[in-house]
């Protein structure tokens, strides 16, 4: 326990120093000292006119079910006016083409359905799937560790890294040193199961052999309950957020 206590003490001291310097140093320039705003364009409220507005697409979003943290935050900045429609389940279908024909692997919404769908396709690898899901949960839950490091001075982070304390006490940071392909091979997954579990890698744009498992775990856990999309299109996000910003004295540039 001694290394852990020392680590916590160092982290606490570094955070306090960071806060003190941020509050009392006064050396950083004020980014809001100059007014660079231009007059905002009028908000379009006419429904017929809004139908003609180009709606730039966004990827579907996870964790927008009622009661989730993401939904709570967006409800605050849109006053609960933005409605999120769940995608039908399965929200994704992974397809493999091979000598034996076409195979489809549905990704169902909801943790139980998601796991069961994988096990139905790979009944001989149920234990591996369980280990994979458990690892995804453990790693993704440690994401705040990476955020905490941003509050620490760089020399402190470098010292903790050289001592091996970062990867020793944080599953998320440990997984950041391993590729997705490496982890799946260590779990003993077949090549076909590896391909299915890696199907989402185009979302973060790096192949499994070059992507960190920590990034993959975050994304898989994010979509475990399925995908959601703003009802009415992505422009509804801005439409319901702008009035809240303006009433608070802000301005939105368009």
Automatic annotation (TrEMBL):
GO MF assignments: all-trans-retinol 13,14-reductase activity
Membrane disposition: Peripheral membrane protein
Signal peptide: 1-17
Enzyme Commission numbers on file: 1.3.99.23
InterPro entries attached to this UniProt entry: FAD/NAD-bd_sf (IPR036188), Retinol_saturase (IPR052206)
Keywords, in A-Z order: Endoplasmic reticulum, FAD, Flavoprotein, Lipid metabolism, Membrane, NAD, NADP, Oxidoreductase, Signal
Top-rank taxon, per record: Eukaryota
Catalysed reactions, semicolon-separated: all-trans-13,14-dihydroretinol + A = all-trans-retinol + AH2
Principal location listed in the UniProt entry: endoplasmic reticulum
The protein's required cofactors: NAD(+); FAD; NADP(+)
UniProt subcellular location: Endoplasmic reticulum membrane
GO annotation, cellular component aspect: endoplasmic reticulum membrane
Database matches in PANTHER family: ALL-TRANS-RETINOL 13,14-REDUCTASE, BLR7054 PROTEIN
Protein family per UniProt: Belongs to the carotenoid/retinoid oxidoreductase family. CrtISO subfamily.
Protein name: All-trans-retinol 13,14-reductase
Organism: Pongo abelii
């Amino acid at each position: 326990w001694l290394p852990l206590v020392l680590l916590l003490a160092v982290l606490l001291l570094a955070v306090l120093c960071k806060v003190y310097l941020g509050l009392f140093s006064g050396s950083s320039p004020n980014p809001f000292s100059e007014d660079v705003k231009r007059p905002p364009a009028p908000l379009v409220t006419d429904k017929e006119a809004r139908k003609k507005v180009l709606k730039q697409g966004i990827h579907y979003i996870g964790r927008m079910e009622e009661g989730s943290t993401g939904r709570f935050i967006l409800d605050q900045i849109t006053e609960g006016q933005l409605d999120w429609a769940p995608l039908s389940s399965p929200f994704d279908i992974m397809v493999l083409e091979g000598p034996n024909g076409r195979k489809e692997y549905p990704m169902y919404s909801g943790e139980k359905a998601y796991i069961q769908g994988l096990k139905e396709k790979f009944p001989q690898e149920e234990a591996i799937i369980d280990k994979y899901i458990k690892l995804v949960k453990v790693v993704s839950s440690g994401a705040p560790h990476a955020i905490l490091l941003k509050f620490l001075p760089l020399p402190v982070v470098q010292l903790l890294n050289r001592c091996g304390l970062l990867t020793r006490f944080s599953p998320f940071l440990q997984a950041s040193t391993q590729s997705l392909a490496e982890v799946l091979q260590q779990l003993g997954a077949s090549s076909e199961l590896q391909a299915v579990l890696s199907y989402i890698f185009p979302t973060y744009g790096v192949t499994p052999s070059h992507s960190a498992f920590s990034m993959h775990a975050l994304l898989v856990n994010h979509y475990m309950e399925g995908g959601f999309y703003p009802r009415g299109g992505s422009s509804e996000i801005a439409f319901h957020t702008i009035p809240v910003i303006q009433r608070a004295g802000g301005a939105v540039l368009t």
